[in-house]
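Quick review question:
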């Protein structure tokens, strides 16, 4: 496994899933891996190919997806492996794989136990539902891309309704609405008002929009998981005249 793309996403059991190619290169060193294919007692053949180490002692063939529903049978059917005879040298098994796949094979999902290892390790090995035998000295490990952050606000549109106001008693009037926000992880974020802030509401009245007590357009920090997002409007009288006032604006979410 030489690379993984930058589109990781969480799946079941605290694993993350990423995509990437497995590549093999002939460095000209014969018999560099000690030992042979070992399919297990009583087995004349098994499957050989690139494997994933997701956490210590847990090996998955590249293309085998037990976490997301592949199940044990994929150890016999992983389409990134080739069938090899028991007891042949590792070099012969690698050559058989290269004849089948060339230099590179890709898969849509590779696994790493994110909160434990924060790395993705790959290696050669032979495997079946009965027995797994990894190629000693073939493992390499690398970092995985950071999970993309996402903050989702629930609860629908926000209506900041100040109700009826008396002239001379407008400045400082405040109304606040709370919505739940859920973020992938702790993040610095900025909510910008599409029309600028303060917002001209007409009839000589303006509104300063704040998010969690901070003027929109400035950064705030949201925790990972669910929290409350408090969106408020504070009015200023700039020569108010009687009549209705309103404005529709969009809060633009930007990660910092």
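Suggested answer, residue by residue:
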């Amino acid at each position: 496994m030489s690379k993984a793309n930058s589109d990781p996403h969480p799946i079941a059991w605290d694993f993350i899933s990423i995509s990437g190619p497995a590549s093999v290169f002939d460095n000209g060193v014969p018999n560099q891996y000690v030992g042979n294919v070992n399919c297990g007692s009583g087995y004349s053949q098994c499957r050989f190919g690139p494997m994933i180490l997701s956490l210590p002692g847990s090996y998955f063939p590249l293309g085998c997806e037990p976490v997301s529903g592949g199940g044990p049978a994929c150890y016999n059917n992983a389409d990134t492996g080739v069938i090899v005879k028991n007891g042949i040298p590792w070099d012969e098994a690698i050559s058989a794989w290269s004849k089948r796949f060339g230099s590179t094979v890709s898969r849509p999902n590779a696994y790493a136990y994110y909160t434990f290892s924060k790395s993705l390790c790959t290696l050669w090995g032979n495997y079946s539902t009965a027995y797994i035998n990894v190629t000693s000295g073939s493992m390499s490990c690398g970092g995985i891309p950071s999970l993309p952050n996402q903050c989702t606000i629930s609860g629908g549109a926000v209506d900041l309704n100040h109700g009826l106001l008396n002239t001379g008693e407008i400045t400082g009037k405040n109304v606040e609405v709370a919505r739940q926000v859920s973020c992938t992880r702790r993040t610095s974020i900025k909510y910008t008002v599409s029309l600028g802030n303060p917002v001209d509401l007409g009839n000589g009245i303006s509104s300063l929009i704040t998010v969690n007590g901070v003027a929109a357009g400035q950064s705030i920090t949201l925790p990972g998981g669910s929290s409350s997002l408090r969106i408020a409007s504070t009015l200023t009288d700039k020569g108010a005249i009687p009549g209705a006032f309103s404005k529709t604006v969009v809060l633009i979410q930007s990660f910092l």
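Why it works: The chain has a mean pLDDT of 84. The two ends are 31 Å apart (CA to CA).
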